[in-house]
Amino acid sequence: MTTGTTVNSGTDRWQVLRLLVSRKTVLISLIVIVVLVLAALLAPWISPYDPFKLSIMNRLKGPGAAHWFGTDDFGRDVFSRVIYGGRLSLMVGFSVVIVSSVLGIALGLIAGFFRSADKVVSRLIDAMMAFPDILLAISLVAALGPSLINVVIALGIVYTPRLARIVRASTLVIRELPFVEAARALGVPTWRIVTVHVLRNLVSPILVQGTFIFAYAILAEAGLSFLGVGVSPDIPTWGTMINAGQQYMGSADWIMIFPGIAIVLSVLSLQLVGDGLRDVLDPRLRKEL
Predict the structure, then answer these.
(1) Which residues cross the membrane (predicted)?
(2) Which of 171, 164, 166, 199 is nearest to 114 (CA)?
(3) Mean pLDDT of successive 10-residue segments in the chain (289 residues)?
């Protein structure tokens, strides 16, 4: 017993995939994401140089045959550092999606299904949404301390309300549907109703919002690193690379340009895929495709 927004059968999944790849922008975005993920996973094998190896003799060399993206102020190969930086930037984004999904789904289900808890949880969500994302993230990282794990925790908390509000709104609708009322009448335990009948019908909006949070997290991590409150400057991420290269703007722009391009490609691709998923998974929008 499910609502119309849930993708259950293999046929529906294949139909969703066909509709996604039929849109050129989404197909190109998926290809870009796959390439970035593969490059990050295969970094030790495809990087031409050690991203941490210093070579003062080759410092600040422009892009060329030996160094495709040039070198930084310590002579390190920028191409290799962009690839390795992608590993951590993408890992941060994915980890933030996991943290915010766990917290957001839990809060959203509690607020949407249990009316007695709705006011308290909703006020908490509204209070968190009142703060700008980047300011709340800076405050949390400052309180927890600058580290990779703390950045993930801070951003996960920051983006929890986005998912919690969507889950809550959908749960408020689903809990009043006949199949939920029938399950209650049959004496089905509340935990089973919530996890099987309600949560199962929230997969589509959670997937869509997850892609957006992934993109926001990559951008936010870059912003935190650029401001110097993110991960350690010694760890190559796209944000720390841009932060390190800002002092050479105008003389060695490539230090900032290439990690910046990587951020733009990943964030834009994830946003386009999220838009495509939203259009395909929403029955009302699917009819227009």
Answers:
(1) 26-47, 88-114, 134-159, 206-231, 252-273
(2) 171
(3) 43 65 82 91 87 83 84 86 89 92 91 84 86 86 84 92 90 83 80 80 86 90 81 80 82 86 91 82 55
Tokens for 77, please give them. Answer: 């190969």
Reference 209, options 271, 155, 265; nearest CA is 271
Total domains in the fold of the chain: 1
Residue 129 structural domain: 41-55+64-287
Q: For the CA atoms of the chain, what is the radius of gyration?
A: 22
The pair of three-digit structure tokens given for residue 123, joined into one six-digit string: 């006020």
11 is a domain residue: no
